[in-house]
Design brief:
Elements lengths: L6 E6 L6 H14 L6 E6 L2 H11 L4 E5 L16 H5 L3 E6 L2 H6 L4 H13 L3 E6 L3 H5 L3 H12 L5 H5 L2 E4 L13 H18 L2 H6 L1 E5 L4 H8 L6 E4 L6 H11 L1
Parallel strand pairs: 1-2, 1-8, 2-3, 3-4, 4-5, 5-6, 6-7, 7-8
Helix pairs in contact: 1-2, 5-7, 7-9, 11-12
The structure holds 1,3-dihydroxyacetonephosphate.
1,3-dihydroxyacetonephosphate binds next to strand 8.
Length: 254
């Protein structure tokens, strides 16, 4: 598929996989996907598996991502993990502001932007998640919600930092529900986000930012979603937990 931006497909393993299970999966993925050059492939295991997974994917085409980090560099923040600690395992990406964290940990746009700035300061690329609830979509508020989340979560990023940030559009009603957004719905939301980036930055910057779609992405719908001009990859939950389904999503996207 001829795309303006290089596709980035990331697996968000969420709170799944012991270290042993993570090693099995990533070893299989490494073999299965060894020849893929057209897509940036990222796996985001839980913190506990980062160290071991990082050893297996060293010198491979798979990059490592974390699922969250704290906005501070160090200190009295019990239970938290700082960017510098992620760097020890060659973590290149970090998912920030996932809707599950917005919902259960009450993460705000202001907090997410602090985390994004801290990630960039450590040369880790943030994958910043945005997306509307079903009630918001049905109430005609999708654009308003995306506008607020994009402005708030990305506040303070320089142009260069913005270009190295990935945005994941994940409509909350499509996460883990089996209800994927249609490719037209995804394209509409992605185009809206890109237009907003033009107004916040400029045309050239907006054209360089990769916007992933997330929410029930499967091997069977990946190709159609990725064929949309403003869909530059996927953030995959459930289907990233097995080598066959994640591998097929990547292969079907090329
Ligand atoms: O939340 C998601 C990825 O971050 C999407 O999860 P599912 O692919 O399981 O719907």
């Amino acid at each position: 598929m001829d795309k303006e931006r290089k596709l980035i497909i990331a697996g968000n393993w969420k709170m799944n996989k012991t270290v042993a299970e993570a090693l099995d999966l990533v070893s299989d993925l490494k073999m299965e996907l060894a020849s893929i050059k057209e897509v940036d492939i990222v796996v985001c295991p839980p913190f506990t598996a980062l160290c071991e997974v990082s050893k297996v994917i060293l010198h491979s085409n798979i990059r490592l991502g974390a699922q969250n980090m704290n906005e501070h560099q160090s200190g009295a923040y019990t239970g938290e993990i700082a960017a510098g600690m992620l760097k020890e395992f060659s973590v290149r990406y970090v998912i920030l502001g996932h809707s599950e964290r917005r919902q259960y940990q009450k993460e705000s746009d202001a907090l997410i932007s602090k985390k994004a700035l801290a990630a960039h300061a450590a040369s880790i690329k943030p994958i910043v998640c945005v997306g509307e609830l079903l009630a918001e979509r049905e109430g005609g508020l999708m654009e308003k919600v995306l506008d607020t989340q994009v402005r708030g979560s990305l506040a303070g990023l320089t142009k260069q930092q913005m270009e190295e940030t990935v945005i994941a559009y994940e409509p909350v009603w499509a996460i883990g529900t089996g209800k994927t957004a249609t490719s037209a719905q995804a394209q509409e939301a992605h185009a809206f986000i890109r237009k907003l980036l033009v107004s916040l930055y400029d045309e050239a910057t907006a054209r360089r930012v990769r916007i992933q779609y997330g929410g029930s992405v499967k091997a069977s719908n990946a190709r159609e979603l990725m064929s949309q001009p403003d869909v530059d990859g996927a953030l995959v939950g459930g289907a990233s937990l097995e080598v066959r389904s994640f591998g097929d999503i990547i292969k079907n996207s090329i």
